[in-house]
């Protein structure tokens, strides 16, 4: 049985899709069987970031509505054999997703894959709710600024109340992924500090992704940063995050691109 | 009703009127409307008392005129206000009617509360069985009678009744639908406080009108906690906290770190902008002191 991991944030533009692609690819690079699923129906991007946009024939909506078989819609990544993508439809909207259909697709994916990584749309409405509904684990992507932190807090509340696990009285594992972190700006007080974000959200920290041009470069090339430049600072941060996700203990630090100069060693593992 | 004066009946004032500075004037308005004597404001001591508004603990005292120089007296302002009185018309047999009334009250408990009621005995005979117990039965149920019609104090059965000072006339406006609402379940003593083990997240609302709310984590910006009693937050209070909802002015707000968007006790509130700077980020207890929120350090 595979694990369902939702990547969510509430706020848009904080790096959900980039993180979905990078975490998914990093998991696959560690020989896990991974599928990344784009729930952002109508505004699909994951296929672009994964470099699969020209190979999309069927999509999630076709499968949910029974017009295509799951195997027809899955696109296997050309670089990593164990990585697949299930794209969203660009022409439909989120109302085309049905709860039953999503449940069926997720159940089917669980049988084939070790990890089902769901890229949630922004917001707290139907699309986001359906994306998180079957999750076993959640990665909450947050930028170190107040509006993102507040929206993440809202999403954590929903994860604890509206998901299938929460309704069954179980706990969903929540992890905080801090993205676009700039240590220098945080030190100058222009960004929230890591301690502040952790204090507000009080969920365990799974990784700090430094602000880096590498991420944008990789996205424009249609490759997750962990595939495009595995030695870059953000890629290393994503690899560390994936190891923590799999239960390993890894010291928390912010990787930097400057040679020989490692980021400050952070002490927090959990909130 | 602390603002009620000795000579002025003020049956219809709701308790909120006590919060308004013109509370005393309201009582006087009614007296004027009913053609009763208004005690003349005689000297400063009286005026000073009336300036206290709702916190008057003693009846307004009319001072005897003194022998100082006569001063121009203030103008008496008179405004009209009308209240709707309910008319109850008991039917024989009275035992059944009282039972039906009890059933109705159980379905819509607050309906008769604080409403003036006129008892119309037009359907009843002077020798009706159980008539002597009717008015005591109504008073027992908290019904406030302002007038009894269709009965006579000279009847043997009604002689023992408490006859209210009468109102008469009025305009009949027909039957009134009694809204049915389930009576609130009695508060369970074991749940006199609600303990939340987790942070209260943005967008979440915790409401516990029957007692205290204790939050072991933080209350996020955009979250709301309201309690009939006090609100205790062992983390940081960043959202809104309402204590003493339902009018319990003894409710307090206690938090380990104060960064609240809004705090309120018994309806009196303070926004983040009004919080004193030296209390922000501190351990604070907030309580109501008269009409003022007091923020006291906890340490």
Automatic annotation (TrEMBL), chain A:
Record domain CobQ/CobB/MinD/ParA nucleotide binding: where: 5-224
One Pfam family in the UniProt entry: CbiA
Keywords (A to Z) from UniProt: ATP-binding, Cell cycle, Cell division, Nucleotide-binding, Septation
Protein family: Belongs to the ParA family. MinD subfamily.
Task of the protein: ATPase required for the correct placement of the division site. Cell division inhibitors MinC and MinD act in concert to form an inhibitor capable of blocking formation of the polar Z ring septums. Rapidly oscillates between the poles of the cell to destabilize FtsZ filaments that have formed before they mature into polar Z rings.
NCBIfam families with a match to the protein in the record: minD_bact
PANTHER family: SEPTUM SITE-DETERMINING PROTEIN MIND HOMOLOG, CHLOROPLASTIC, SEPTUM SITE-DETERMINING PROTEIN MIND HOMOLOG, CHLOROPLASTIC-RELATED
Protein name in the entry: Septum site-determining protein MinD
Provenance organism: Endosaccharibacter trunci
Lineage, opening ranks: Bacteria, Pseudomonadati, Pseudomonadota, Alphaproteobacteria, Acetobacterales
């Amino acid at each position: 049985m595979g694990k369902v991991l939702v990547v969510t944030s509430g706020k848009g533009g904080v790096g959900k899709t980039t993180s979905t692609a990078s975490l998914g690819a990093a998991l696959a690079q560690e020989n896990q069987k991974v599928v990344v699923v784009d729930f952002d129906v109508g505004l699909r991007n994951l296929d672009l970031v994964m470099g699969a946009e020209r190979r999309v024939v069927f999509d999630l909506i076709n499968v949910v509505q029974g017009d295509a078989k799951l195997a027809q819609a899955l696109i296997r990544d050309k670089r990593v054999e164990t990585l697949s993508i299930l794209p969203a439809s660009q022409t439909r909207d989120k109302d085309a997703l049905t709860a039953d259909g999503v449940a069926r697709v997720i159940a089917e994916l669980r049988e084939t894959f070790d990890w089902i990584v769901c890229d949630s749309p922004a917001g707290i409405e139907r699309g986001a709710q359906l994306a998180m509904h079957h999750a076993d684990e959640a990665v909450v992507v947050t930028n170190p600024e107040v509006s993102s932190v507040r929206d993440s807090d809202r999403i954590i509340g929903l994860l604890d109340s509206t998901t299938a696990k929460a309704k069954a009285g179980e706990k969903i594992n929540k992890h905080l992924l801090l993205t676009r972190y700039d240590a220098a700006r945080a030190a100058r007080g222009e960004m929230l500090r890591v301690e502040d974000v952790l204090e507000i959200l009080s969920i365990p920290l799974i990784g700090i992704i430094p602000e880096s041009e590498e991420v944008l470069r990789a996205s424009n090339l249609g490759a997750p940063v962990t595939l495009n430049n595995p030695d870059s600072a953000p890629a290393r941060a994503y690899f560390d995050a994936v190891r923590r996700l799999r239960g390993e203990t890894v010291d928390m630090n912010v990787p930097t691109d400057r040679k020989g100069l490692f980021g400050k060693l952070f002490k927090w593992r959990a909130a | 009703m602390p603002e009620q004066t000795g000579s002025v009946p003020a049956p219809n004032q709701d308790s909120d009127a006590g919060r308004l500075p013109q509370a005393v004037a309201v009582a006087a308005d009614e007296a004027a409307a009913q053609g009763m004597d208004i005690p003349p404001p005689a000297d400063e001591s009286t005026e000073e008392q009336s300036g206290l508004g709702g916190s008057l603990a003693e009846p307004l005292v009319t001072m005897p005129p003194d022998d100082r120089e006569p001063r121009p007296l203030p103008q008496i302002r008179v405004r009209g206000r009308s209240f709707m009185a309910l008319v109850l018309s008991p039917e024989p047999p009275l035992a059944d009617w009282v039972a039906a009334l009890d059933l109705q009250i159980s379905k819509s408990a607050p309906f008769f509360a604080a409403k003036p009621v006129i008892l119309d005995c037009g359907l009843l005979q002077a020798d009706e069985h159980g008539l002597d117990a009717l008015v005591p039965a109504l008073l027992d149920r908290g019904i406030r009678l302002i007038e009894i019609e269709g009965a006579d104090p000279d009847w043997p059965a009604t002689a023992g009744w408490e006859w209210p000072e009468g109102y008469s006339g009025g305009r009949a406006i027909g039957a009134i639908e009694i809204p049915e609402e389930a009576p609130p379940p009695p508060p369970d003593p074991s749940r006199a406080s609600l303990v939340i083990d987790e942070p209260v997240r943005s967008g979440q609302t915790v409401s516990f009108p029957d007692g205290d709310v204790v939050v072991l984590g933080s209350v996020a910006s955009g979250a709301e906690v309201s309690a009939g009693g006090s609100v205790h937050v062992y983390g940081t209070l960043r959202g809104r906290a309402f204590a003493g909802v339902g009018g319990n002015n003894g409710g307090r707000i206690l938090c380990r770190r104060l960064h609240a968007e809004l705090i309120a006790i018994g309806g009196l509130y303070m926004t983040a902008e009004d919080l004193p700077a030296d209390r922000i980020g501190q351990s604070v207890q907030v309580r109501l002191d008269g009409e003022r929120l007091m923020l006291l350090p906890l340490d």
